[in-house]
């Protein structure tokens, strides 16, 4: 009995001691509760954040890890190269050869022959076309907040992005370029005003590439639901200039100011600001964000590094005018390189919508390649189409499959056929030969039929 009593007393003392040690003062308890409730807002994995970044006038010759055979001088772009190493690099993205048609194709999911945007726009993209942002809102019950910052070039009315095309938030320049990267007309809250920089601090803050990045960061940080953020930089469109040293590599800092050196430095400044935008995300945001980077059209002739600048440049139907970089990284995206898949910027409409949770694979001229982000064996396009107006009545369109490319001049019916696997820079028109092989004859017939199908002819 004494042993039992002793055991009971020891147990009681142990329990009392543990209880007394676990007593939490009210202030400490309040602190613990506060710490538990300040965790990051849970991410919505069904609706990942989407960041679309558009570089202006950037083709493969000016992009790291592309077109190595050119031995071109490349900008130092660690942010973009990190996206490449953690995501999927596309070799066969076609755009339009000029900026407005490319942007309209993404926004509407339609080719220029259906939007009537075939050249840099001087009027307005019609509000009869449903924008990608409005489409996502309609199909997901407004699951997303959306914004566009930067170059618009689809209409010069201050209300066009928001009231006409249904963008929730827009700030940037409506035209195709800024006359000066430190002094330009800026639209915010549907009001346009001249932004000028007279002091060093103002120059640093108002530099177009920096300004649009900061506007994007400020907007993103205010969001309480998944977001779709479209950032369209002016860089590296003219006027060519040397950005501040803090935004460019030491390599560029040491170079003289030529058009090419300044053009590449502008891309480096853009890369630096892209990095700042991505770094502003929390780890949870980054883990639930898809980042898409593209160029909108070919490199300007003055700074192009292709061997034949008359063919391969901005505004051209040849590869240097329409074959642009695309890198996609983030949640749900595999790591690798897509050297076979045929994609057009028009396909970003369906792809981004499907990433956002919309049940869509094909709509208008747009075909989603979301499945390709996860599975290299996913079905992709058999053909891709684009079009480029000429100076007078010599409008062209081009159609390609995985091997051959047809260029068709509409008014004259003149045709060119190239084997892109063997002749990447379109030096030898197969149709100039006396006789075509059976394979070439079949390819020509198929490509002509596809062009007529797309055009409704």
Number of helices: 16
Total of domains: 2
Task: Give the structural class.
Answer: alpha/beta
Full CATH superfamily name of the largest domain = Alkaline Phosphatase, subunit A
The proportion of residues forming helix, as a percent range, comes to 25-40%
CATH architectural group of the largest domain:
3-Layer(aba) Sandwich
Mean pLDDT: 91
CATH class of the largest domain: Alpha Beta
CATH topology (fold) name of the largest domain: Alkaline Phosphatase, subunit A
Mind summarizing the main beta sheet? Answer: 11 strands, mixed
Straight-line N-to-C gap: 105 Å
| Strand segment tally | 17
What global shape is seen? globular
Proportion of beta-strand residues: 15-25%
List the helices and strands and how they pair.
Blueprint: H1 2-21, H2 26-37, E1 49-55, H3 78-86, E2 87-94, H4 99-108, H5 112-115, H6 132-139, E3 145-150, H7 160-164, E4 169-172, E5 184-188, E6 191-195, H8 200-206, H9 208-221, E7 227-232, H10 250-253, H11 259-279, H12 283-287, E8 289-295, H13 319-322, E9 323-330, E10 336-338, E11 343-344, H14 348-355, E12 362-363, E13 366-367, H15 370-374, E14 384-388, E15 396-400, E16 404-409, E17 415-419, H16 438-455
Parallel strand pairs: 1-7, 1-8, 2-10, 2-11, 3-4, 3-7
Antiparallel strand pairs: 2-9, 4-5, 5-6, 8-9, 12-13, 14-15, 15-16, 16-17
What does this structure look like?
This protein folds into 2 domains: 49-382, Alkaline Phosphatase, subunit A; 390-455, Arylsulfatase, C-terminal domain. The protein is built from 16 helices and 17 strands. The protein has helices at 2-21, 26-37, 78-86, 99-108, 112-115, 132-139, 160-164, 200-206, 208-221, 250-253, 259-279, 283-287, 319-322, 348-355, 370-374, 438-455; strands at 49-55, 87-94, 145-150, 169-172, 184-188, 191-195, 227-232, 289-295, 323-330, 336-338, 343-344, 362-363, 366-367, 384-388, 396-400, 404-409, 415-419. Strands 1, 2, 3, 4, 5, 6, 7, 8, 9, 10 and 11 form an 11-stranded mixed beta sheet that branches. Strands 14-15-16-17 form a 4-stranded antiparallel beta sheet. Helix 9 (208-221) packs parallel to helix 11 (259-279). The termini are far apart. Residues 1-41 have low confidence and may be disordered.
